[in-house]
Amino acid sequence: MRLSKRIEKLPPYLFVDITRKMAQKRAEGVDVISFAIGDPDLPTPHHVIDCLCEAARDPANHRYPESDGLPQFRQAIAAWYQMRFGLTFHPDKEVLPLIGSKEGIGHMALCFIDPGDVALVPDPGYPVYSIGTLFAGGEPYYLPLTEEKDFLPDLEAIPPSVAHRARLLWLNYPNNPTAGVADLDFFERAVAFAKRYDVAVCHDGPYTEVAFDGYRPVSFMEAKGAREVGVEFHSLSKSYHMTGWRVGMVVGNATMVDALMRVKSNLDSGIPQAIQLAGIAALEGPQDCIPEHNAIYQRRRDRIVETFNGMGLRVRPSQASLYLWVRVPPGYTSVTFTTKLLEEAGVVVTPGVGYGHAGEGYIRLSITIPDDRMEEGLARLAKLTF
Ligand SMILES: *Cc1c(COP(=O)(O)O)cnc(C)c1O
């Protein structure tokens, strides 16, 4: 048999090496502590689980769901955007539930990218933006996110010849992996860029609810003119600790939402209905889990910042997201420093270069690690010399 070029051309899985070394360490009997994965360690709120259990017993939920979801779920998504951002979306035209936002992000490329087209993709960034582009036969053009520019892409620096070939612009704030944040002024500049070059904007915003010190992230859709050029992906994964349930959404430009619906209706049969009902319970139910989770994350963030500062490494405390983006000390690359932390402390972090060339010189730590494991890991790190 012969695999397709799109499979053969896939870049090697970024963390294969780390995963292999981690397994090796564990086999040697080392108690490995991982700060690597951005997956909430705390459980889904009880009322959401109760709803799922009940819905699972109802035979009406045992059959094929609709690709575009239950009308009540689309309405709950629209109502949540109204409550959270004061934005009004037509539940049947401007809202589409997704089997986790990753699914919609990956499929969106099929709506806009023909062979040879360009997608503008942040570097470092969530790998799905560029892989989706490659699967559709397109070319990612990387926009470096640097600390000097507050991890915002310099849209003015994109050569017009590239901008004219671009069909999609991917943005992600609060950002994974840099923890950078964006304000409405930046989003409005992105809208202006999109209009100038006729580029569709996809804003990926799964971390709008994960924020600290009273900071409230904005939605891209609040930017003036955003609805004319773009959509926003959001997810229940991080906000409600539902990563394992696979439920997210996209809202915004009706043409873009409809195009994604047309792709999806030919590839999948939607989100299991019991999970959609649980999604409604999350969006419409009590919201106190969000500040509760954020208080826990903020405390962990502070402990990690404190420890790294004590080690002589300057760390910007993240205002939002589940990550800390830490510059490696002089003389190390992101990979050699990651290896040192594993070898000498049994602590796993991810090398910044795994998220793109511009991630070189950084490591990413996730704050989704139980407090006792985190404290043990930090105690070991504090003893290192470099
Ligand atoms: C976690 C994450 C997602 C979303 O995930 P789903 O679980 O598929 O909804 C999307 N984008 C980024 C940048 C993420 O970190």
Total domain units = 2
Largest sheet, strands/sense/barrel: 7 strands, mixed
Shape: globular
- The averaged pLDDT comes out at 96
Low-confidence regions: none
Order of helices and strands: HHEHHEHEHEHEHEHEHEHHHEHEEEH
Give the end-to-end Cα distance, rounded to a whole number of Å: 50 Å
State the CATH class of the largest domain.
Alpha Beta
State the helicity in percent bands.
40-55%
Number of strands: 12
Cα Rg:
21 Å
Task: Write structural notes for this entry.
- With 386 residues, the chain is an alpha/beta fold.
- It folds into 2 domains: 5-43 and 289-382, Aspartate Aminotransferase, domain 1; 47-284, Aspartate Aminotransferase, domain 2 (3-Layer(aba) Sandwich).
- 42% of the residues lie in helices and 14% in strands.
- The strands form 3 sheets. The protein has a 7-stranded mixed beta sheet, with helices on both faces.
- α9 (226-229) links the parallel β6 (200-204) and β7 (230-235).
- α5 runs parallel beside α6 (128-135).
- Bound molecules: pyridoxal-5'-phosphate.
- Pyridoxal-5'-phosphate (PLP) binds at residues 38, 100-102, 126, 172, 176, 204, 206, 235, 237-238, 243, 248.
Write the layout of secondary structure elements.
Layout: H1 5-8, H2 16-27, E1 33-34, H3 46-57, H4 71-85, E2 95-98, H5 101-112, E3 118-123, H6 128-135, E4 139-144, H7 160-165, E5 166-172, H8 184-197, E6 200-204, H9 226-229, E7 230-235, H10 236-239, E8 248-252, H11 254-265, H12 273-284, H13 289-310, E9 323-327, H14 334-345, E10 347-348, E11 350-351, E12 362-366, H15 371-382
Helix pairs in contact: 3-12, 4-12, 5-6, 5-11, 13-15
Pyridoxal-5'-phosphate is lined by residues 38, 100-102, 126, 172, 176, 204, 206, 235, 237-238, 243, 248.
